[in-house]
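Build the 3D complex.
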Amino acid sequence: MSEKVKEKSGIRSRIVPLILLVMAGVLLVLSVVGFVLQGTQETTQSLGQMQTSAVLHAASEGLINNIAQQARADKLAELRKDKNFRKRGLDEVNSICDAAMEEARAEAEKLYANPVVQDQAALDSAIQTFEKALSESSSLSVTERAAYAEIYVQLVDNISDWKAIAGESVADADVLASLQSTAPDLAKEANAHLGSALVRMARDQAAAQQTAEEAELKNQLINLLASDVPSWTEYIGLEEDALWEKLLQEVPGLEKGEAFRGDLLKKAAEHIAAAEKGETLPPPAEADEGADTVFETQADYSYFTPTAALEKEEAEKNDAYEQLNTQLVAVIPDLGGLSEKLQASLRGNIEKVLWMEDNSFSSRFHTYQQHKAEITSGAWKMNLASLATPLLLAGIAVLLLGLVILFWKPLTGRFGVPRTIIALFFVYLCLLAEFYNISVRMMMGNVLERMTMYGVLVLAMMPGIQCGIGLNMGITIGCISGLLGIVTALQFDLVGFPALACSCVLGALVALPLGWCYAKLLNRMKGNEMTISTYVGFSFVSLMCIGWMMLPFNNPRIIWLLMGKGLRVTHSLLGSFAHLLDNFLAFKIFGIKVPTGGLLFLALCCLLVWLFSRSRLGIAMTAAGSNPRFAEASGINVNRMRTVGTVLSTVIAAVGIVIYSQAFGYAQLYTAPRQLGFIAASAILIGGATVSKAKVSHVIIGVFLFEGVLVFGQQIANSVVAGGGLSEVMRIMISNGIILYALTQSGGGRRA
Amino acid sequence: MANEFILEMNHITKLYGSNAVLKDVSLKIRPGEIHALLGENGAGKSTLMNVLFGMPVIHTTGGFEGEVLFDGEKVEISSPMSAMEKGIGMVHQEFMLIPGFSVTDNIKLNREITRPWLVSKVLGKDLEFLDTKTMARDARKALDDVGMSIEEYTLVSGLPVGHMQFIEIAREIDKSGMKLLVFDEPTAVLTESEAQQLLDVMKSIAAKGIAIIFITHRLDEVMNAADTITILRDGQLVSSFDKSSITPEDIAALMIGRSDEDGMVRVEKRTEPVGDTVAMSISDLWVNMPGEVDKGINLTVREGEILGIGGLAGQGKLGIPNGVMGLYEAAGDVEFYGQKLPLGDAGAVLRSGLAMVSEDRRGVGLLLDQSIENNIAFTAMQVNGDFMKGFLHQKDTGAIRRYAEEMIKELDIRCTSPAQPVGTLSGGNQQKVCVARALAMKPRFLFVSEPTRGIDIGAKQLVLETLVRLNRETGMTIVMVSSELQELRSVCDRIAIVAEGKVVDILKTDASDTAFGLAMSGVKSKEGVGE
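Done.
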């Protein structure tokens, strides 16, 4: 009896996945049919006919519209010349113009609306020649622009070096040599034509920087004037020269401002005038800090110059259009009689039809359809063929869903519910990205980059979980130690690998005692570690907000310029060690940039932690975390093990933030590290860890899934919802939603 | 009085699942008598009282069979509240007093005497004033009845433990209509003079016609105070009789007595006698283990013997291994082959060649989410540095796997592979893993604490056989702590009985049931073998 019930419910529970699988099968078969249809002669021919029809439509309709608009504009100009123009009302003017436009349109339609093709073959071949020329020159243009953009970005990474050279050198050749030394790609023969453009850009940048520096110096001097002379009354009535002499004696550093003597004296005069009235002027507003540290990595194409090859292609394109034009003249009567402007606009319309970034069947079909091309034969076949790709994606999606539901029990038993759902979600995001024509490869490159960025930080959660303190939200303590290491390296103007090594080592050294104290605190608060670590993390960030202001750093590159003390919020690591690891041995494969150095370093850290977890100390630590009484019975000092784990977690976090900063390109102080604990915690939870058990594999899977979902999710949100504001909201929702989900499901990976 | 018996419980049977904890037990109590209810741990005393009080645990597990007559009428007692209304009271072993309240408040709790006033007449009884004067007078009277001189307005929180017991009693006798009082081991926490005072109070209460059920382990108290005695064993009624017709020795024998075959495990007999070398000598060991406190244990263990430690639950037998192994706070002298053991330092004790199989298998004995092999190797790895290799001190997975497989074969651990998490094993197999873990340390001396608790008969046999074989083959000294006396008698060479935190007696395995029963009640018999 009970077995029968079981059987029935078994069948019922399988109905949903079976329906899904059948649906997936239908979709996939349809998609295969679509792909097959794309290759048949019939559809190819039909598409060709659509193309011709679309071109003619684009030409004639564009022409009619343009003629009508032109007529309206002409009428308006004519009316304006009339003396009584201002006396007429707006409505009257409009109605007169509209009437003229309609009249012109009707006339143009009579002429152009129904083009009759006589020599179909010649027209087709002309269209195809133009299309070919168009695509060739465009592809060349795209590659050249890409090369330009890449070199531009390389140069921006080292901008301080070559800006100095551009500022000092007289000869362009010197500047070019310097640019080539920092951006090796520029030295390639294929990129030679870009040299002069980039030299021009370097000179402009150098000039801009000099202006900015001068403006800043002037601003500082004016501030000095305001602050260093308490009372201006004694200067009242002095001549300019005498006043300048006095001020030079009184205000230290003012001698640098000889160049702005006039401006400074003018400012001084204002102060004197104010003093006469018994007032004091407020110090001028502070300039926006950090504006000069952040550079746009978006390539500036205004400097771009094409190669000879590209120009040749352009010429060929023009020839091809000439041919097409002669054909069009035959079809569209009176074309030759139109103004040049109208002819140019006609060309623009046709180019829009013939050239598209993605040259696939479906996008061609949709473009032609947009231009009102008639489908002459086999409409359903054409539609099906154009839907092949979306059908394939939908088929895969439904198939996956069906499979996951069918194998829900074994899957979740093996991987846990959260990991299964997030992984499925990630695959769906990849499919969606493909659907929205977002480059999955580029996204993957992004994901890899972010993995190197966050990997070590997430790894820092592992010893904490293993030693029994749970999710160590207090890794911010380690992060702040690492940031101290970074600013120390910046303080002494270290560059490259020494800077990176110094940051890591110093950060780790600072993290040791801090982690030890933190561990002692946690040992007194057993059972409440999560809450305590969150609060300690937050309050340490706040404490260091004061600390960053008080610490005796004095390198002008890192302190607030005007105050002369206190560290700035954002420090550009460009020119120090930004992207140092990521670019080490980096290579491109399938268009994905692989940050080899960063990945290697992450692998090394993971290996070390793995080796540690298999050592006697590591095993003891894990046991102390998972069953303290068991560990005690085996003679293990549980508090000591917890201390070891906490210190280790803190030290790894210190190294982690250095790696994070090098990948990010900036080191951010003050409240910036506050959320890092949450990100790391949710990543490792998604990877399959629980609050009491974690492995290296959880770290790697977790950081991949977390960053993958985040990168893809953001990008898709951007394409679905246009406009930056909403996509930013989506970003916050996605990242915090993942955290919330992971925390509520934190027991999900546990064995039954 | 119309009825001869105030309480009759007839043919009570209670099943937990398929396991019968009470089998056809009957109990008859006359008004004004003190009736002692005796039996070992697990004999069914608490279950019988739970039935009497209608505790939820009885109803939620399927109720019971049999009938309860109170004052001659058949009653259905569905909750402790209805028991109280009928005049049945209980003096709890754990004090149910509110520390921040005064003695009067505690005695009158939930039975406050109130007087109405204007507002309460409108808004109901909850707003009436407390009649503190009457309440204090009642409390004074109840306190006088139990012979307490303390002021009724003092706070309970500062009082000594003995006083709390009396306040508890005062509260019960203050209830009007009280006909039957149950005392559940009331003397366990009292000093000798307090205990005597309590017995006097009980007698004076009984003289007023209130019947008393007296649950205790102390036979001298039974002989002193009780009128009639009922003995339970393994959920069955052994017998019921007047005090005058029996001696303490008989009572002890009846509590323990089993047929020889029952619960015995057959093991290889010892061929050579145990030598005289002292392996461990424990003197004046105090252990602060919650529920198992030891107060000055003196014990000598000879090399190569199997020494059993028995006694009732809560008397301190578990404190001995846990104290020596450093799991709980301990004080005293423990010498191991002449070397003083550092108490409280588990690592040092383990390194000197001792090992222990804990009674708390899932809590202390195992890492439940880790594999069998990791569990077996863990302590040996940590303490002795075994199973390690390479300059990075990595664990030697190959060696661990080999050793684990050997152990699985030898102890017949039923598992899919050495990598199976121990949390998924049955209790018996988990116990075998615990034994394997202790053996992996190659100890000279092994404490085994409650090795057969919660495991089936087959596994029980195998575990005990393994212990005996180890002892015979390697000469390993074993101290086995168990609540199952039969088990100790079948395996051990000598058996020490612990009661109230002290070793009462050391007996041979063939000593009489009377001797064991007396020892468990804290009385040393003539049969003891001594040191």
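Chain B has three domains: 1-87+177-246, 97-175, 262-353+478-531.
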